[in-house]
Amino acid sequence: MLPDLPDIAELGNTALPAATPRALSRKQKAAIIVRLLLSEGVELKLADLPDAMQTELAHQMSTMRFVDRVTLKSVIDEFVEEIEAVGLSFPGGLEGALSVLDGTISPATVARIRKAKGFNFSGDPWETIAGLDPNSLLPVLEEESTEVAAVLLSKLKVSTAAALLGQIPGPRARKLAYAISLTGGVAPEVVDRIGRAVVERLDAQPSRAFADGPVERVGAILNFAPGATRDDVLTGLDEEDAAFAEEVRKAIFTFANIPERIDARDIPKITRDVDQAVLITALAGATGPLQKAAEFILENISKRMADQIREEMANVGKVKDKDAEEAMNTIVSAIRELEAAGEILLLSGDEE
């Protein structure tokens, strides 16, 4: 005989047992949170995690299939509770701490800390390299193997790579240009190792009291010095150290250098970044040897705009030397800013 069965009505009044969340490890819970955030379109910077942790996360996600709603809710609730319990967080590792302190402690102190603790870079090395002064990369391009230098050039902005290549002697530059054509088959992990090696090499260099070399510092000062002062200083430098004086002349860029060192096609970019009243003052005050630079600018903008500026120059009449020099320095500053941003390139001055 069949056992006595409960009445149908009694079954309807009986509560079903509540579903319980699955027991999961912390690694499994982390994988669930990452999967959930990615599915919601959240961009996670997982590349900043140590390689071992990234590998473990990928392995953990590969072993999981389905998670029921009850378990998912339990994991989310636990995650939210932990986040809300955090009052303050600190970056992991030495690089994270130095990143937070960037700008508040001196470069010399940073160098001493890294030297004492040992350098252990984490994150994307190419992001760090992209933010460096391009000139600091020249020793790497000149001294490292052709393959390493070619990868470095390939990872830089095109304008930055072009400027650096222009500073390398011809035979070496030609070798690097050819080597770039062979970098297509380089494995991503090799590119990453090269980036880390470059960062470590640059970090190992002794810190300097000045960010720029003496040629750049003297050139920057003379850029905005009155013309008479600039000529007098250069004459004195010729007597003291002719080679140094010649390097300084190359580093100097003034209004008079525009025809030799600016590509004619870049003139419209420059004039767009300069207030028209300033441009008119500079051009009207460009007399004598400076008139060549003024004509170069007028010849390489639209005819309508050039005619309008010439008319305004005629109305302005004679411009005070001080006002003209200030206006010309403003134009030079705009050119320097465009060059720093990679928008234009300064020519060497030895070519048309």
UniProtKB/TrEMBL annotation:
The keyword Acetylation does not apply. Keywords: Cell projection, Cilium, Flagellum. The keyword rRNA-binding does not apply. Residues 236-346 form the Flagellar motor switch protein FliG C-terminal domain. Residues 134-207 form the Flagellar motor switch protein FliG middle domain. Residues 24-115 form the Flagellar motor switch protein FliG N-terminal domain. It holds the Pfam family FliG_M. Transmembrane segments: none annotated. This is Flagellar motor switch protein FliG.
